[in-house]
Amino acid sequence: xxxxxxxxxxxxxxxxxxxxxxxxxxxxxxxxxxxxxxxxxxxxxxxxxxxxxxxxxxxxxxxxxxxxxxxxxxxxxxxxxxxxxxxxxxxxxxxxxxxxxxxxxxxxxxxxxxxxxxxxxxxxxxxxxxxxxxxxxxxxxxxxxxxxxxxxxxxxxxxxxxxxxxxxxxxxxxxxxxxxxx
Length: 182
Known about the structure:
Blueprint lengths: L5 H16 L6 E4 L1 E6 L4 E3 L1 E4 L9 E8 L6 E7 L1 E3 L10 E3 L10 E3 L8 E8 L9 E8 L9 H28 L2
Parallel strand pairs: 2-11
Antiparallel strand pairs: 1-4, 3-9, 5-6, 5-10, 6-7, 8-9, 10-11
């Protein structure tokens, strides 16, 4: 190093070696991003994660909610070795743990959806020493009725049946011709 004193170079090299030996890792969280569900039904808010460290007793999961119209963030659910459901508030008696930490699953189920459940749900997982990472988000839209989806297989099914009938008729004609030929 040109012009650098050895006293400055040694700590720099030591820091680089320690970084290589102890890579920093973060918990990665995976959610659906957006979800639509019908008023009055139950919905599973899926949150899975990956972690550099094996899952242990120090794992924590925190779910929060921010209403679509703004307002303050609200507590939904907490998990640390056991599930801790809210004792009061809008989610009391309406949320249950549906995760499995051994399978890297931190999901919950929200019962009896209401229109004021519209908003953003956040899932945060900490698995020491992996405590950094992005928070997973799900934007939930509660609707009156489920949207009808176009059945894209109907035309394909009809074409498939037509081909079966056509092939069967062709084979029958070939069979009849082979019988009638002396």
